[in-house]
User: Fold ParB-like protein from Hoylesella saccharolytica F0055.
Amino acid sequence: MAVHKKFNALGRGLDALISTEDARPQGSSTINEISIEQIEANPNQPRREFNDEALQDLANSIKEIGIVQPITLRQIAENRFQIIAGERRWRASQIIGLKSIPAYIRTIKDENVMELALVENIQREDLNAIEIALAYEQLLSGEGMTQEKVSERVGKSRTAITNYLRLLKLPAQVQMALQKKEIDMGHARALLAIESPSLQIKLFREIQKNGYSVRRVEELAQKLKNGEDIENTPKKISKKVQQSEEFDLLKKHLSEFLNTKVQLTCSTSGKGKISISFANETELERIIHIFDRLKDQ
Assistant:
């Protein structure tokens, strides 16, 4: 394991709950190497989904460059620790057979553990929309916080929090699709404009079948609210099939141009991301140099 430099505290999520002067024990900013076997997950972890492919990618990254950000633990018994933040890094480290992992050790009261885990995950944007909604619900009901207090803790407006909480009113299969990122939050909010769960599901199936954009779903939701039959509505040609071939070709060209693995993902709303893989710092510098040359042209 490479020597790790000292890092700053994880950010507002922890600082809001742990006083830097009072509650933080001396030396808590020091990174400790903790045995993987001495660590256990938080049973109240707000993250419900751990994508196997994403975990493997993280494991590969850790194997190549190590763990950049130490995880955060609290001690629950002699030689036993519980995760506050960083379960994905802990799981990925197990995949590649690491024996220990760099960690901060925090002294935290039992009643603050759930709140810390929720706030930290929300602020790090590690959760999907439904997990965030459930986290807000837990802070409000389980932790007895007001919406104003939650807003302060996570740095989000009360309107944003309300919009997330409304997602929990959607039918289970719609929530599952949102959790798996098969639809976007924009689609979900458009479905919420319809009061009838059966009509919500009907329109949701149309989204699945035709790959409708958020704007198109909003139009169809309004038609359903007006009592119109969307099955007789002229369908716009789905871009899904067209984009699939175009994306495959673009991915191939990018991979060949950069001489490395490139991944393209796109949601039904048209939003997406490009992921470029590199094996080490030398390869990263090579890729950056390619982009620098393009910028200068």
Q: What stands out?
A: The radius of gyration is 23 Å.
